[in-house]
Amino acid sequence: MLASKLNPAAPFARIDGRAAGWAISSAPVPYPEAVAAMEARAAAIAAGEAEELIWLLEHPPLYTAGVSSKPEELLSPDRFPVFETGRGGKFTYHGPGQRVAYVMLDLTARRRDVRAFVAALEDWVIGALAHFNVEAEVRPGRVGVWVDRKEVGLPVVEEKIAAIGVKLRKWVSFHGISLNVEPDLSHFGGIVPCGIAEHGVTSLVALGRPVSMAEADEALRQSFTQVFGPMTEAKAPL
């Protein structure tokens, strides 16, 4: 559980105590424009010309292919636009009802430990889900956040509720997480999500939690401070 892994001092807070920016785009953001803005901001952070930023948004329906993607894992290539991306991982889906959080943090100012950083991202999501009484966990050998669907008389089913895919350049992170709040889960059927065919995907609403995007954002905000330290309101790049 999360409480056993985190300490009250925010394990991935900046050494100098400075706050990261927190910005939300209210309208769907096209993927190419979002990537360009994110990479520009990450470069500015690395150059000492901009502050860190967590950017929350939604995308129109699309598939992205991480650096480990295999062509055969794209089951419906004509269903939605497909974008190759430099983040780690395989194919994933983005679309309405899914909260994407692009994480532009300076690990030199925090901790230069990639494994610990990915674990911190997982803890952040797990803590947010706990606000809605969803017990989420990580699974050995699988990046992301998982839940067990338990129905009377049926075997326990493992399902993924959040994906994580990041990249570092000059120790500044970009890309980030995607949390399924209320997306159309049938849209994941056009890919093998994250290369894992034997398990499905789920969302907060599918788990019986009628959570709004604003409520999910507030849970993410509160959990972020537990793991990464203070944040401050900022302007969204787009």
Major sheet: 9 strands, mixed
Topology pattern, helix = H, strand = E: EHEEEEEHEEEEEHE
Shape: globular
Q: From the alpha-carbon coordinates, what is the Rg to the nearest angstrom?
A: 17 Å
Mean pLDDT level? 93
What share of the residues does DSSP label as strand, in percent?
Answer: 25-35%
Low-confidence stretches: 1-7
Distance between the termini: 36 Å
Number of strands: 12
Number of helices: 3
Give the helix proportion (percent range): 10-25%
Structural classification: alpha/beta
Describe this structure in words.
- Residues 1-7 have low confidence and may be disordered.
- This protein is 21% helix and 28% strand.
- It is built from 3 helices and 12 strands; from the N terminus they run E-H-E-E-E-E-E-H-E-E-E-E-E-H-E.
- A hairpin with a 7-residue loop joins strand 8 (142-149) and strand 9 (157-169).
- The chain has helices at residues 31-46, 114-130, 213-228, and strands spanning 20-24, 53-57, 62-65, 82-84, 91-94, 98-104, 137-139, 142-149, 157-169, 172-180, 200-201, 231-233.
- The chain has 238 residues and is of the alpha/beta class.
